[in-house]
User: Fold these one by one.
Assistant:
Number 1:
Amino acid sequence: MGLTGKVALVTGSTSGIGLGIARELARAGADIMLNGFGEADAIETLRAGLAAEFGVRVGFDGADLMQASEIARLVARCEAEFGALDILVNNAGIQHVALVEDFPDAKWDAVIALNLSAVFHGMKATIPGMKRRGWGRIINIASAHGLVASAQKIAYVAAKHGVLGATKVVAIECANAGITVNAICPGWVLTPLVEAQIAARAKANGTSVEAESNALLAEKQPMLTFTTPEKIGAFTVFLCSDAGSTTTGAALSIDGGWVAQ
């Protein structure tokens, strides 16, 4: 599953799922363009560390994915600095929780802009170069919420359902251009943010982290085990490999049985 010589852009990759994906792509030999937020010194330490650990080229661009022009600039920079953009992972996202009647208009606009519109703009900017080179892999990080709903998450659920629809359309359009387009639909993923939430719940309830982890998982998943960013990264590497060359237009669950119920 070697990806030496390929160039990957992973949005939202300075932490969490995106960083796990970037690490596994780098482990497979791909050069990486990171994107996301954080302290400049910490990001530079991360960038340099990945380059040193895996012996690949690693860049960083803090493009604001709420702006279509910034996404186009980011893609153009990847192609200019690395010579190509072969793998696009649309991972960046935000969440807001509220009943529909209380959901702020600005929050709806923001969630749709980053979780859905940025996916469209990223694919639109990237596909022409992939078509010229006759090879490309696009992986859109959706969610179990792209397939089923939960209360108080109207913008997130709508956006992730939209990501799956967009994935299918572009997969059909690119089916004979050497480009595959797929969506990964995670359930609960053990990111630093989720770990902090579990620790806070345990402290507030006077229980253990293990008990709160199981309670959180059991709300949705038959399997009381978290997916990890590294496992999602390994799944991404598979989709980029020759073994995944005829997998396209798929919504691929990695969710502990969440949507099997």
Note: Strands lie at 7-10, 31-35, 58-61, 87-90, 136-141, 179-186, 251-254.
Number 2:
Amino acid sequence: MTDLTKGGILVTGGAGFLGSALLWELNRRGISNILVSDFLGKDEKWKNLIPLNFRDYVEADDLRTMLCEQPRRLSEIKVIFHLGACSSTTETDASYLIRNNFEYTKVLAHFAMDGARRFVYASSAATYGSVAAAMPESVALDSLRPLNMYGYSKHLFDTYAERSGMLPAITGLKYFNVFGPNEYHKGDMRSVVNKVFHQIQETGKARLFKSYRPEFPDGGQRRDFYYVKDAVAATVFLAEHADGGGLFNLGSGEPNTFLDLVNAVFEALGRKPNIEFIDMPESLRSKYQYFTCAHTSKLRAVGYDRQPAPLREAVSDYVRCYLTPGKHLGD
């Protein structure tokens, strides 16, 4: 078992959605000897960091320079949570995604392996592509066909780690549809909960994409919606446990429809549902996942027994405790 209170922790993407939620979870456990790295850029994700405790911050470009040229400056790091990436499923600059999501991950992974450090990184359920079933992590990686370049950039490192023999010694997390506080900065990549909350507040109704597959009615597309508080709790557990090696699905294990999700937002706001179905952009129709569900037996097999919050409960917590008052985790 890895004691996260011993030695330093590096969290990349630490100002982002998952990264800042992870910092919050570590702080809840009394852990603050953390080096945070991110590309702060021009959005407002820096606000996620304000309530959180950590030892130091470094921009991601400077971190890569340290890793390649001055690794001794990072000698106290014992655990790396690599959550930094371009997470836009609509990003079309393949070269950027390769450099940012694949090559950077390779550098960090080799740094971790060379120093016997614990390495936990974010993969993605997007690597499964259009597979309409709950897929176990044991599925042959070379059989997967991601639908977009983001998913492929994540899949590329998974397969690299497998071919190089390092995968059993590190932990890759295939996060499903995570939602919750601290995603304010994500623009069009915000969760449906966040988007429809603002739509309802502004117009009194929510908008959902129409379905373009006959087996799924409008609003009947199904996703494994997973509350961010549950996601980071599972992340920390797997970092602590030596048997948490290889790839893990992180999700609720239960697919819910978009109608289920949106109705839960209306309920949390005390309003009657009012939903409009709109055309999906042509550019998205061939890349759209109609069904996702995490096969979570591997996570349970290594001893993780926390049950994820039911969808209505998770949505209520997010809407009432964070979206309505405009709060961040830790406020």
Note: The first helix runs from residue 17 to 28.
Number 3:
Amino acid sequence: MNSKIYAIMKKEMLHIIRDPRSLFMAIGMPVIFIILFGYAINMDIDNVKIIVCDHDKTAKSREYVSGFVASGYFKIIKYTDRENDLVLSLDKGETKAGILIPVGFSDKLSRNKQAKIQVLVDGADTNSTNIAVGYVRGLSFLYTAKLTVEALNKNGMAKIRQTPGIESNIKIFYNREMKSRNFIIPGLIAVIMSVIMGILTSLTIVREKEKGTFEQLIVTPIKPYEVMIGKIIPYWVLGMFDMLLVVLVGTLVFGVPLTGNLFLLFFMTGIFAFSGLGVGLVVSTLANTQQVANQVAMLISFLPVFILSGFMFPIKSMPVLIQAVTVIVPAKYFLLVLRGVFLKGSGLFALLFEFFVLSVFGFLFMLLAAKKFKKKLK
């Protein structure tokens, strides 16, 4: 390695080691992200708390309600005789749904008439609400089919054991248990890499300006590209370390499957890192203070990857104009790589397009950083 680049790299590494804020950002933030996203954010819906008001109090009404408990998706926390308790429990946030079974429920079913129930659902959380409503409809349909079979058998059609219908044999690939952690934690690598690369690198040049050491670099025979390379290498290494940390915690602690090639994951992560490094260097050369650089880097590195990359929100559900904007977000393509390698076991051939796009982004951002970086004072 060039001795000048090595000197700059060693100097930058000492900056990181001696700066508690940089160390926390590099090591502490990934750990916090893993804990928050791994434990706190859970999109899986189960044990939905419900309250039941059964005015009918018959064998059929109790049988219908027992189907909710047996499904494993619902947990009945209270039975009541007052309808107002349903609304009150929703207001207090004690339950997510309330089921009201009117008088005559069993009688109408016995006379082959349509029996109606009322389901009150907390719509504040639309995701949970939509899933819970789907569960209620599915359980009601299954109970109706069961009653239909019983009615047919009662009328002398003893050979009928089930109603005619279509049975869907569903086979889920890649994430068979449908765990949200398997979807979120791989994408967390993109978030951490973008933040670490963007924010930390954005402080490199502007720190020299604030401390007055930039003048020392100017009078040295070091070329601008040597300064730039020497400064980005430590952060590239830090980013790869953070990636390894997330992979180890994700696979060993949270049980996220890594079905693909680990070396391919490192290779693609290393390419993606150059995009963040380039953005950080551009910000650092343009900003005059570390505070400004930190705020700008956070704005252009964290928010796009969190909102516009498909990490938390599906891109196809966004307006067409916003979808067009996501095309220039490198993390969008890196997320496809991460989830492809982790869950699908995708190889390089399947990820050639993403490899090409990430390489282009990395080259363009580093080229822009080299153009903006000049070894002279304004």
Note: Residues 126-154 form the longest helix (29 residues).
